[in-house]
Amino acid sequence: METPSITRKNSRTAAVEYDLFEMAYRNYFNKLEAYAATLLDAESATDVVQDVFLQMWNCIGEFKQCTSVYAYLRRMIYSRCIDQIRHKRITERYISEAIYLTDSARNDVEMTVSFRELTGIYNRILSEMPRKRRDIFLLQQSSDLSLSDISLRMNISVKTVDCHLANARKTLREKLLVYKQR
Q1: pTM for the whole thing?
Q2: Is the pLDDT of residue 173 over 50?
Q3: Maximal C-alpha separation, the chain
């Protein structure tokens, strides 16, 4: 016999909850939408208000205890709008960082290509030098030997080593200058 009274109570509660929701929707939807539109664009504002009313429908029991349903809904909308603004800022920051990284990668690729090209030109210039001049220059570049140490290794005078190094640097400078002007 208790079942009919419980059923009546549940149906009355459901009717009260439905009336509360309908009253809130009819009276506050447009006001809340206008309020949300002050914080977001119109389309996002409508979406936020609809989401809040959907949440209200799903948790209507909580709203029966509110002293001011409008204030509660307005606070929910404010929170949702702030969440969307924060999310938008994070997304924009992520996009700008991605663009920066893409530009950096592009610059790195360009620098790598330029470095490879320059290395090729450098090696070509070295290969065009007389063998003894190239050997003396590479020996001086690859080790920290003094001119006298190089002259002892190559069995030539210090003046000859100095002359070969000066000529090698001059050749590199002239030919790399031509490359730079392109």
Answers
A1: 0.49
A2: yes
A3: 122
Question: Which amino acid, one-letter code, is at 70?
Answer: Y
CB 38 within 8 A of CB 74: no
115: tokens are 């470095």
Residue 172: how many other CB atoms lie within 10 Å? 16
Tell me the two tokens of residue 149.
């140490």
Confidence of residue 182 (pLDDT cuts 50, 70, 90): low
Q: Which residue would you say has higher pLDDT here, 161 or 3?
A: 161
